[in-house]
Every structure is written in structure tokens, then in C-alpha cells.
């Protein structure tokens, strides 16, 4: 099956998570992604949090599938020369070095553009160019704090909280992938490349859009009706942390199910969708609430919403999270079990769809990874193993026209 991005050549000058997540996605869809790594060490994630001695860590293998690895010291003249050749032949270069690193290496955008006017340079930084923090190096949790996620996540009586989801890293990588595809389509029209830049702060903030909505509502009204603080608690002048409250127009909460005393994940998320009130009452055995004026509108329910959740928890007490959802789905109630990583890893539906993929690796045996969350009618992305460090160095150099003698010479000059 031919893949849509076949023929697009990408220099993957990325490391850790934000950049690699982007280029991995493009590799799944057919791009020829050549990861450029420092000889001897490579991407730092190859050795971070290892579970098997001397074998590429899962952190690396799960973010670098379907790529090639070229080792190159791009600070040495002969490494620079190879990179220049690659730039002339490629469509896209993706990087997420610390601020200024590419310039210091001798590859500012101006020079890359001179080498190849059709080149698309895609960069991730912690903060956008010109921002007063644009000199900072940034990791995931730093971005979650800078982008508004931490101040609005967690419980009101606890500290700002980090989400387990990679809002700063992989999310920024996904934004960058959209930027690259857009620039490629633009290039088809103009014949010119361009620089695409995405900051981690901006990408987190983009996902916190509804919290900026809430700040403006709070400024105007002084309260936020869907937050647990309403109507009995107090609001300050900033959006508070709302615990597990629903962020949209319907109240929701994480509710205990049978076994919660010993199983920390025996919970469901339950949403009280306004027009589902009658089915909810029927489902939980409270048909008398359907017409009761204390319950039959969202406004009437809000003052005692936590008593309502408590009643639902009483109904849940003798049901597992899976049994509960199996009953509630028949009443068309938006809900889900709180699933653990173990349950997700073994979920037959996710295996079937390719969202959880098992990949064979030369050195570590097989491992699980998250496959493409994007599904196509005419293509099923196949996930192949991440490359060993420098696995494709000779192959890439040959494709650039280097002879065996020149390649041997390069290896010698590049030796660490
Ligand atoms: N050959 C020679 N030198 C190389 C090289 C290669 N193949 N690959 C990288 N280098 C050099 C860089 O040129 C840089 O050199 P100088 O700082 O001397 O100019 C050096 O390696 C270190 O690069 P770095 O600043 O990117 O690395 P770091 O470990 O100090 O910082 C990180 C890591 C992630 C904090 C930083 O890269 C960053 O802020 N990136 C932008 C934001 C980002 O993507 N963060 C997400 C990371 S995922 O959590």
C-alpha cells in the first residue's frame, strides 16, 4: 500500500519527546525520516529509564519507530558537510534543541534557506521567539506550568498539579506536525519553503482554551457555575482548580464503584448530561426525581450536586466499574471506567485497531507502543522498530554519493 507521505525526506534533528513524537507520526504516514544523532551517545532517551541493561530504553523505542538513524557530529567540519548535503536533498528539517543551538552549530535559518530554498525548517522551543522567557530550556512539566495547565489542574486545597498526559511534549509535536503538513501544501503552491515554529507554552495554552474562557466569565460574573466552588464556596479573581469537575456545560465527577477500598482505580467518570436526566433517574432507581422540582433542571440540581453524586455512588456500591458502565450505556449516559495502563495494554479492541501495537525489536525482543491514533480508510500505518544507534549511517551516506573509502574515512574522523 503506498503511503501519502512517501517521497518526503525529513532530517530528524530531534531528541527527548516533543520533536521525536512529531517525526514519528510523519514516519508512520510514509515519510523517510533520518534521525541525526551524536556519535557514541545519540538521543539521551536511548539510555534514560532503562529496563534492560545496554538496550535502547522504551522511552526511545516508543518515540522513534519507523525512522533511520544516522550518527553525525555536526560540530565537526566533515559532519557539517554531510548535513549540508542532506539539507540540499531534503524537504523538511525538524529540531528541538535548546534556544540558539542550531545557530551556534552554524545552521541558522538564513543559511538553511540559502542551501535549499524549498526547505521547511520546523522548530520546537519552550517559548515562542521574542517571548521574555525565550532563552529558557524547557521540559514537559515546565511547559504545563507556563501554559496554564498546572494552575487549573488538581484540587482546590492542593498545589498546582501536573497532568500525566504529555501536554507539553507530544502535544507540541502534534501541533508541529500540523504546521509541517500545512507548509508542505503551501510549498506546492508557492515553490518556497518556510520556517514553522511551535512553542510548548503556546501548545499547552491551546489545550487550556476553556480555562481562558472561564477566566473571562469569572471576570464578568464573579463565579463559575460548573465548578465545585459554586454555590457554597468562594471564588477569587483567578480560575480555580476544579478537581474532577466537568469542564463543559454538564456536571460530572469520578465516582466510587465496588472494590474502591482496595483498588485505587475502581471508579467511573459519570456525566449528568442535562437531557439525560430522566434516563439517569431510571438507571439509578430514582424515578421520583424526574419530575421533582428540586432535581428536574440543571439549576435546581447544582446546589446539591454532590448529594446527587453520593446517591449515585450508593447505587454503584455493588457494581464493578465495568458492570456499572454496561448498565449505564443502555441508558445513553456518557460515562467510562477509569482504566489503568495494564487494562489498556491488554484491551482487545485497542489491539485490534492498532492503537496498541506490539513491535519486534532486534535487541529487546517485542515491546508495546501506542500506534497511530489517526485512522484512515485506505491505509493502516504499520509500526516498525526504532533504529539502533547509527544503524543506517552507511546507507544514508551511500545515498548521498559517498564511496566506501570516504565512508570509512568519515567514521574515523567522527570517532568519539
Ligand atoms: N553533533 C554535535 N552536537 C550536537 C548534536 C550532534 N549530532 N546534536 C546536538 N548537539 C549539541 C547542540 O548543538 C547543543 O550544543 P551547544 O549547546 O553547545 O550549542 C548541545 O548538543 C545540547 O543541545 P540542547 O541544548 O538541545 O540539549 P540539553 O540536553 O542541554 O537540553 C532540552 C535539552 C530539551 C531542555 C532543550 O533541548 C530544549 O529546551 N529544547 C527545546 C524545548 C523542547 O523541545 N523541550 C522538550 C524536550 S522533551 O521533554
Shape: elongated
Report how far the terminal alpha carbons are from each other. 41 Å
* Distinct small molecules: oxidized coenzyme A
SS summary, helix count: 17
Q: Please state the average pLDDT score.
A: 97
Gyration radius (Cα, Å) is 26 Å
The largest pleated sheet is described as:
6 strands, parallel
Order of strands, widest sheet: 3-2-1-4-5-6
Order of helices and strands: EHEHEHEHHEHHEHHEEHHHHEHHEEHH
Strand proportion, as a percent range, falls in 5-15%
The helicity comes to 25-40%
Segments where pLDDT lies below 50 for 5+ residues? none
Annotation, overall tally of beta strands: 11
Question: Which key phrases capture this entry?
Answer:
single chain, 416 residues, alpha/beta, 6-stranded parallel beta sheet, 3-stranded antiparallel beta sheet, 17 helices, 11 strands, 13% strand, binds oxidized coenzyme A
